[in-house]
Design brief:
The complex is a heterodimer of chains A (about 110) and B (about 110). Chain A is built from no helices and eleven strands. With about 110 residues, chain A is mostly beta strands. In chain A, the strands form two sheets. In chain A, strands 2, 4, 5, 9, 10 and 11 form a six-stranded mixed beta sheet that branches. Chain A has a five-stranded antiparallel beta sheet with strand order 1-3-8-7-6, with no helix packed on it. In chain A, β6 and β7 form a beta hairpin. Classes of the chains: A mainly beta (about 110), B mainly beta (about 110).
Amino acid sequence: QQQVKQSPQSLIVQKGGIPIINCAYENTAFDYFPWYQQFPGKGPALLIAIRPDVSEKKEGRFTISFNKSAKQFSLHIMDSQPGDSATYFCAASIQGAQKLVFGQGTRLTINP
Amino acid sequence: DGGITQSPKYLFRKEGQNVTLSCEQNLNHDAMYWYRQDPGQGLRLIYYSQIVNDFQKGDIAEGYSVSREKKESFPLTVTSAQKNPTAFYLCASSIRTGSSYEQYFGPGTRLTVT
């Protein structure tokens, strides 16, 4: 119940395409859902986060869509660029909890 | 310049030796964390600390130890009891925003034990 399942494991998209990374959870007590971007050899960077009271959040070219009834959330990258090639992690936490539960990561490659 | 620093970036040790990884933050965050990342894998929580002089085990604490004597510092010791210590180690700290805690990561230390 504490798991967050992330898919796909890897994804290759042409430049300008819209990669979509999906995450699913079971624990309805989760109420904070961040996404992290990690480049090789670097620490993950907080990209964007959403709470269940909204269905969508946009920051620049990155959009989170949230489906509370399906217990799923996804990351969309508009007008993807080769510089977006990285590993992306979704995560979730329970209200007031200091620990995050991470998905397994998606290795995204944007071809020029 | 605020942030989380981890040193060194690369660390090499012989099997059987204990090694301590440094993590310092000047963000005034209360909570700090240590994660382990293996190639192509996700993040696994080793230990975390919510306040000074207090810490809790994460999912894979065996073979590791920590201390939290200062708010800014959360060093991790990889002991000789850790069977597969070679990995990328990430330190993080968090700040409360509303009902949640935003976690921010350091640059990581790559430990190689031979």
